Please model this.
Amino acid sequence: MASVEQQGAEAAAVAQGAVTAIPVVNPATGEVVATVPRAGADEVREIVERARRVQPGWEALGFQERGRILLRAQKWVIDQRERIIDAIVSETGKTYEDALAAEVAYAAHALGFWARSAPRYLADERVRSSSMLVKGRRLAVRWRPLGVVGVIGPWNYPLTNSFGDCIPALAAGNAVVLKPSEITPLTSLVMRECMEACGLPPDVFAVATGAADTGRAVVDEVDMVMFTGSTRTGRQVAIRAAERLIPCSLELGGKDPMIVLRDADLERAANVAVFYAMQNGGQTCIAVERVYVEAPVHDEFVAKVRDKVVALRQGPSGGPGTAEVGAVTFPPQLDVIERQVADAIAKGARVLVGGRRREGSGMFFEPTVIDDATQEMAVMTEETFGPTLPIMKVRDAEEAIRLANDSIYGLGGSVFTKDLARGEAIARRLRSGAVCVNDAAINYVALELPMGGAKQSGLGQRHGAGGIRKYCEPQTIVVSRGFPRRDMHMFPYTARGTKRVVAVLKLLYGRGRRR
Ligand code: NDP
Model:
């Protein structure tokens, strides 16, 4: 088994382009489970050229035919779920249920959703204008696919946040080149097989495995980039996309706060806090990353959280029902978690459960509860991306709101209270892309809702109308039918004509009241 240091060094060498084949390691066992090629810039260019050639044919098939293929893929995903779960678990070290519920179920739902919703979201829009100058003309907006979309994904959700973002792009009529994380490329390759088996024309969906240099090459060739990953890399992608003047959509990091008010149902709040902090080993962009609890209920909430976390089972997946918390997928992430926990302890926090990386094989950090956290600690301000739950006691709701907003991130958030109106009022004061009252992160499964980040958590959205229109360019169509004898926008200008224009302007806008 490769040590954590070895795996970290291998990841660095891959990122620097020093190797041509990438070993894929199961982080829960340390086993090398596969090796994949690293696509260089020339190969990426060829892949994109092939995709560009076949894209018009794919677009011409229309929504119905494209939808049929996506629905076939939906069935394939359910029929082949064990294979997909095996691939996900083997490259991420996550639990069986994390792979089933947050990845396979998402992909199956999304394939059906976009197959059915694309025609509605991308239907031509008839527009009525208040301008007198276009009276009698037919005005329309249509959504035209951009061409070849590059999707670049992270390692924490190799299905949901990589292939998942390809689905609306394909439904819209684009060809797609997917660049998965070099840590977790296998799931994307299974999905390429899925799409082939379901009748997708060759080259409409391609997977370019590789590391950062492959990602850069994708940005250099495609017509639009959908990027999910860290804020640091997202900024680099945005700069490169700006240089090429191509659109990019960025889904980046988060530090989601949970606020627990004194009238909250503490059992529910504790269950949600523990689930969304520990699910997927805490490696979720919209994980509960920090909790602010009003002083009167702090001790009771913390006791409930501690008891629930102590009961969690951690380890390599042994199939259904064998563990709640899986491995840390990306080797350097263990150091990040360890550093943040050490920083919290040094600044006066108390570790109530866990707090250490686990000895033995595999990369695991113990499910960890930290109490007496303060805003000066990295665990409360930097993305941890590990199975940690730091809790801070606050005086009142105002202090909680101020601290929740005291972040460079703004992805999600949650508020717990029995006073639903007050909960919603507080939700509206949080500067986050989505806020749930008496729940967390659940907005993600409602694909009708836009999901995206405020502040440094991203630009643009996935899901909802915007989640597919971003893969298109709007085109405005104006059709003139009846032709006026004298059009205002025609030469020659005459004094009489101009006088008439002034009279019309006075009539329309000169009376100082709304028409
Ligand atoms: P990274 O930013 O490190 O990498 C993301 C992807 O970008 C990888 O495929 C990576 O390749 C590739 N890449 C790296 N450098 C470049 C570059 N210069 N140009 C183009 N592509 C590049 O993120 P992680 O993989 O570490 O993912 C974790 C992050 O993702 C967390 O911050 C998390 O919050 C965020 N995330 C956000 C979500 C959201 O919806 N907002 C959802 C899921 C995760 P390689 O890995 O092969 O080097």
Summary: The chain has a mean pLDDT of 95. The chain has two domains: 4-252+464-473, 257-446. Residues 15, 152-157, 161, 179, 181-183, 211-212, 215-216, 219, 228-230, 233, 236-237, 251-254, 285, 330, 383, 385, 411, 453, 458 surround NDP (CB under 6 Å). Residues 288 and 499 are 65 Å apart (CA to CA).
